[in-house]
Amino acid sequence: MLEVTLTIPSNDERAYEMINHLRDDIVPDAFDDTGATVYVTGETAFNQDFFSLVEQYTPYVLSFVLLLSFLLLLLAFRSVIISAKAILMNLLAVDAAYGILVLVFQKGVGNELLGFQQTPTIEAWLPIFLFCVLFGLSMDCHVFLLSRIREHYDLTSRATDSVAVGLHSTAKIITGAALIMVAVFGGFASGRLVMLQQMGFGLGVAVLLDATIVRSILVPSAMVLLGDRNWYMPTWLRWLPDLRVEGMPAPTVVIADTDPLPEGALGD
Description:
The protein is mainly α. The chain has a domain at 79-237: Multidrug efflux transporter AcrB transmembrane fold. It has helices spanning 13-31, 43-77, 80-106, 111-114, 126-156, 159-189, 194-226. It starts with 12 loop residues before the first helix and ends in a 42-residue tail after the last helix.
């Protein structure tokens, strides 16, 4: 075992360059044709390996979450438009959270006012963690809203009225749930550890934006503009099972017009 002490901070960019130089140049030249296996470890090497691992698997995680969410929404609401729009709207809240995190913690805009520390980087594990957690929370509220809209649409076939009824019946619950989550995440953000500040602030901002702008304005507006096209399902996909979140709608009973019964036919 050979110990090498860095003369620069372990998280400095030059430190990572030295690790790459060790692994790519020095170690292969020193142990070439010896058959020995050489490992380079330490705090900087660990961070470098962690960054590489996150970078390698992030596309797979994002693709898996997006594809599975699309398929589940497609089965639950039987609409390609609804499924694609839900993915797009949820990504808006996540992307906004990423941007605000960089603005506050890296650029230092308003960080002192909020009591946060300015940092040169965002924690490496945070983007993928925020994506998975926020996508789950956003999808939960989205399914809740869409269930009410679909329920009224199945009964009336009026697209605009269904959006208004669904938004009216779920707005208070979604807003209340969002406020609770923002308060909880704010507790994490009030800590002294930078990674907890970033995590709590990112989650809180994303949930707040999702419940106010995305879920209460953008989603209903888009559904009103699209109208009946919201529920478009290609004929070649109609073989998919109809897995409704709230169960199948109750059948509508239609009473045919008949001649009135003569007076006294039903007795007293």
